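Suppose a colleague, Dr. K., hands you the sequence of a protein chain of 65 amino acids and asks what its three-dimensional shape might be. Before reaching for any lab equipment, you can write down a predicted structure in token form. Begin with the sequence itself:
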Amino acid sequence: MACANVSNCPCTADCPRHAKCCECVAHHRDHEGGIPGCFFTKEGEAKWDRSLEALCADRGLTVSR
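The predicted structure, expressed as tokens, is then:
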């Protein structure tokens, strides 16, 4: 898969996928089960909770089930 990363990565994690968006998203999808830190605001990312509920709360959205 071709992936051109043209913006700076806001995630503070030190990993081999830093700033490689496609690799990072695929890794989280296949291995971590969480949402990459770059999807969160700076404040939300600092909490290290990568759940869907945390992302929605960080972005001011409501999760309905």
